[in-house]
Structure formats: C-alpha cells, structure tokens
Design brief:
Elements (H helix, E strand, L loop, with lengths): L4 E5 L1 H7 L3 H16 L3 E9 L7 E10 L5 E10 L10 E8 L6 E6 L1 H19 L6 E5 L3 H14 L3 E5 L3 H15 L3 E3 L3 H5 L4 E4 L20 E4 L16 E4 L2 H4 L8 H5 L10 E2 H5 L13 E4 L4 H17 L4 E4 L2
Parallel strand pairs: 1-6, 7-8, 7-10, 8-9, 10-11, 11-14, 12-13, 12-14
Antiparallel strand pairs: 1-15, 2-3, 3-4, 4-5, 5-6
Protein name: L-lysine cyclodeaminase
EC number: 4.3.1.28
GO molecular function, one term: lyase activity
C-alpha cells in the first residue's frame, strides 16, 4: 500500500489561515444552497453525556457534502457550561475529514474556532434572507465564542446603528462588549438585563448558557417584523413565541424534530413546530426553492441547531487557504 498522509491544522493554524468575514459567509451560504438542492447528506447529531453531575455533553455531527468539495466529515465537540471556572472556553472540538470514495482520512482540524465561525455565519446568512433589509438594531443574548461571530458577521452585512449584548455574568458581558467595540469600530452596549437588550430590536439572537430550560426571553418584548434566532442548548423562550411568527424556519428538520436538547424542544413536543407549521429549511430558501422574507411586517423565527455540512464546508475553505499559504502539518497515517 502506498503511504497515506493527512493534513493537521491546530488552532493557531486555523487562525493563521485568516479567512475574511466575506469568505466565511460565502462558504456557508454555498453549503446551505447545496443542502437545499439535495447535494448533501446530513445525519442527525448524537449526544454523549459521560458523567452524572457535570453540566456538559459531547455533540457528534456527521455528514457529506458534494459539489467541488466532495468530502465526508465527523465533528466531535464538547459543550461544557462550567468551563469558565477552569479558564477554558465552553466548547472544544475536532473535525475529521475523509475521502467519501475510499474512506481514507484526509485531514484533522481544530474545530473550536470553526464551530464558532460557522455558527455565526449561519446566523448571518439566515438574517440576510429573513431579516428586514433596513434592520439597524441588534439585541444579542450570550457571550461565548459563537456569540462573537454572530455579532461580527451580522454587522458585516447590516452595519448596525445599535448593538446591545447581555450575558448572565458581568465579568463576561462587559469584556465581550469591549472586544466587539474595538473590533467593529463602533459602540457595543452591555445591558444589565434581558429586556433592555432585546426589546424593540430588529434582530434578536438568543445564545444563552442556561443550566436548565427557563423562559427568560419574553414574547411580548419582540418587535413586530423582527427576526428572532434562538439556539441555546437549553430553551430560554416562552411557549407562546411561535404564536407570533409568520414563518418558522430551521436549518435541518431531521435534527430539530427529535432529541433531548434545543431552544424549541418544548415547541416540537407541543406540536407548535411540526412539519405542518414549518415554513422551510434555510437551505431551501438560500437555494431559491422557498421564499424568505416577503414583507417588512413578517415576524420570523430561525432555529438552527448546527450542521455537519457547515463544518465540512468551512474546514475545506480553511484547508485550501492554509495550503496556499504553506500553513499546517503533514502527518503520516499509514
């Protein structure tokens, strides 16, 4: 057998590849369009909860994406709420890529940064198609890694006049707002409570880190015509939230309709979100097969749980840029 080599990119390599905001969004938008056209395979994510009494679990995401990428991938990412107590981010991940014709492993990438970037990009692409074009006020709950990329990539598309952020701990939300203010070159306000953050905002993103479901985001705070994007692992929204929506959109119904976790798990179980009430998957909208926003007065909800194809597509884009710059490590596999 001829020697087999794979490419390894650690966190520093991923950062050094330095994808631009536009490159990140383009990679994710293209992959969503491929999903909408049926050019991908997505297996519903699986969860591993290894220890009782620990606030955390592992997500295992699997998929294949065709087109010019033609790669299969598996990502394992840990999601541990209390990691801040140890000085760690809440999520660590590894992305493994394979040749789908032979099963030969082709690459291993640190997926922590990829998870953050691709999540923010799905939020941004969703807003591109589902938010009002004149949206100028963003209210964002949560300050973890994905939160940074939500705000950064959304702002790259909308150039907000006002950005408000909130998280449970002041020592988290204040530095988060300061970092965003520096990076975006505009004032980002850290609010002391949920209502001040989201009430009347054109786009509301809920990426909280609750230890258990709790209705912290009140339906009455949502402005008519707003886009609401809740994706916390534990639900932070009221059961009535879906009642005010003109359209309910998800990233993948196969993942959203089952499982233990998710922002709208209770809504699925209550029948408020079902195949009958679902407007579309985001990929169908991006591919032009289903309409997105059709009027300014539509209040729309997007729930995305995270797609393996997003990880694969962004990983592929990072590998290509890293290779062109001579970044990364070549490892002998066999």
């Amino acid at each position: 057998m001829q020697p087999i080599y794979l490419t390894y990119l650690n966190r520093f390599d991923v950062e050094a590849a330095a994808l631009t905001d536009g490159e990140i969004i383009a990679a994710i938008e293209a992959s969503l369009a491929m999903q909408g056209r049926g050019e991908t395979v997505i297996e519903p994510r699986m969860h591993l909860e290894p220890r009782a009494g620990v606030e955390g679990h592992f997500n295992v995401l699997r998929g294949w994406i065709g087109g010019g990428i033609d790669a299969a991938g598996v990502k394992v990412v840990g999601d541990f709420v209390d990691n801040y107590k140890h000085g760690f981010p809440s999520e660590f991940g590894i992305l493994n890529l394979f040749d789908p014709r032979t099963g030969v492993p082709t690459a291993i990438l640190d997926a922590s940064g990829i998870t953050d970037m691709r999540t923010g990009a799905v939020t941004a692409v969703g807003a591109k198609h589902l938010a009002r074009k004149g949206a100028k006020v963003l209210g964002h709950i949560g300050a973890r890694g994905t939160a940074y990329w939500n705000v950064r990539l959304l702002n790259s598309l909308f150039d907000f006049d006002e950005i408000r952020v909130h998280s449970r701990r002041p020592e988290s939300r204040v530095p988060f707002a300061e970092r965003l203010s520096r990076d975006l070159g505009k004032t980002v306000v850290a609010t002391d409570d949920w209502e001040t953050c989201v009430a009347g905002a054109d786009i509301v993103v809920e990426a909280s880190r609750l230890p258990a479901p709790e209705p912290m985001l009140k339906t009455e705070w949502i402005k008519p015509g707003a886009l609401v994007v809740p994706y916390g692992t534990m639900s932070a929204v009221e059961l009535s939230l879906t009642d005010i929506m003109a359209k309910l959109v998800v990233d993948d119904w196969g993942q959203c309709k089952g499982g233990k976790f998710g922002a709208l798990r209770a809504h699925v179980e209550a029948g408020k979100l079902s195949e009958a009430t679902l407007h579309a998957e985001l990929g169908q909208i991006v591919a032009g097969l289903r309409p997105g926003r059709e009027s300014d007065d539509e209040t729309i909800l997007l729930w995305h749980r995270g797609l393996s194809l997003s990880d694969i597509a962004l990983g592929h884009a990072i590998l290509a840029k890293a290779a062109a710059a001579g970044i990364g490590h070549r490892l002998r596999y066999a």
